[in-house]
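Thread: Modeling a multi-component assembly for a lab meeting

Hi all, long-time lurker, first post. My supervisor asked me to bring a structural picture of a complex we are working on to next week's group meeting, and I have zero experience with this. I have the sequence lines for every component (577 residues in total). Could someone generate the structure of the whole assembly? Inputs are pasted exactly as I received them:
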Amino acid sequence: MTSKAEVKDPMNWRVWIRFIILYILLIPWYFPKGISRVLVMGIPLWAFAIIFFLVCLVLCIIDVTRNHWDLEAFIESKDGNP
Amino acid sequence: MSGMFGPIVTLAISLVVMLYVGWYSYKKRQAESMEDYFLASRTLGTLVVALSLFATQYSGNSMIGYTARAYRIGFQQLVFPVFMVMIPVGYMLFIPRLYVLANKRKYITLLDFLEDRFQSKVLCFVAGIFLFWGIYVQFVEQLQASGTLFAGLGSNIPYWSGVVILGLIIAVYVAVGGMRGAMLVQAIQGGIMLLGILFLIIFSWSHYGGIGSSVQKLLEVSPEKVLPPQSAKGILSWASTMTLVALGGAMYTHSIQQLFASRNEKVLKRSLSRMAVLTFLTPTILVFIGIIAAANFLGLSTMESEKVIPMMLSEMMQTSALSYWAMSIVFTAILMATLSTASGVLISLTTVIISDFYKRFINPNVQDAKATRIARWFNFVILIISMILVLEPRTTIWRLTEIKFEGLLQAVPAVLLGLYWPRATKASIITGMIAGGSLAIGMSLSGHPTYMGIHGGVLGMLLNFAIAYLLSKISKAHDSEVQSFNEKFVKLFKA
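Re: Modeling a multi-component assembly
Sure thing. I ran the full set together rather than chain by chain. Output:
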């Protein structure tokens, strides 16, 4: 039998609250309307912000796969019908 | 230098390697079984799974059609990298548990799970239609993209030649190599694609000037391409596109099949996190290339803009011998992107037809060897029908993408409610799928594919969820059904 301490299911609120916040930040609703000539590294500020939050999302996905997901024990266990 | 000599040489070398890998996989097959043909006997490692997932997700439509859309709408096409990275998030909703179940209960496809969970052939049939529709349109898109690539390279090259020649090559090696062949080839293609994208950005940067100078030019000639969405409708459309692809893309049956083929959970997790990095880098680069094109090729119509990448290639090829050969590799990379997706999709289409329809509804007692033989021949049938359909392109590649995801999205409530909610009943799920699908199809056919920027498919999925939930609440699942769900699925995840 498997013990609960070994098992991590990514379907929990600590994981999903981060995904939801990043989902909201990845929609460009919070930028002023009209033409802005503010450029960061040659691209418009709003595009830079979206790319920045996208990097955060990638890091978040890597963190979840490394630290919040471990169901291997269930595959090896004899519970359920093989 | 100019002409097709370089692209033909690089393409021929790649094709010989691919056909050899298909043949090698055929020799390496462990048994004439469906699990081996469709899932490579669940033996594939991280590099192969990650690169082939990447190659399948990045297809001809992303390299040609989505870059063309960046040409048309500018920085707002950043929604492309955003939704690509959202696909692994979509997977997080159901893959961790489904992978355990697939290993335990020997699922090959998503429908195996739905049948096991709901014990209903009708439900499987309806869900199967939506899944089949999504991947079929994906296949058609690839053929259209390869025709467009050929036609864009020179006025004397007919569109149909790209469709026919490449279609035949895919059919042969998929039919011979099965899933192992398709995934090994896709892994090689993934490598060539990464190289191609790198060359494309380096050479277009040096030939046309960097992204900074393109932005400056655009601010003068078409400033709207530098702006974020300006209206509530534009913002809703962005959010809708994100949702559409995050959930629809995660429903691709061929990608789920690839994930099931992972050797173990560690491989699966590593593949998904590597895929997240690649899905960020490459589409962001492709959007930048589209922006560079927008600043340098002014005034193309919508259908002309579809060919903007081949036009850039052909222009850069004429500058030096080095860029001629580099662009020949890019040309091959784009074809690889098209081929890899098309092969993954083709094998999945035959899986759906043989494993999900033929075996489930027509001949449940068919021997594995016979089913695999039929699957190999079915590749050609699907190919011929698809080639006939795309010989005259009717719409942009982008619109095909939307139509595809709108269908796939209708299977989401069945999978999520099926996996997490014991009280979901089969009748409510079927009603939800039919209602949601009808809304999406109705809106598309009536010429109003979106409402306030939200896709008909997303609205259909919301309706689908609402109906499935409410009807399940009203009709109340039998206690025996709930108990059976707990026994089979929930207990498995309790120590």
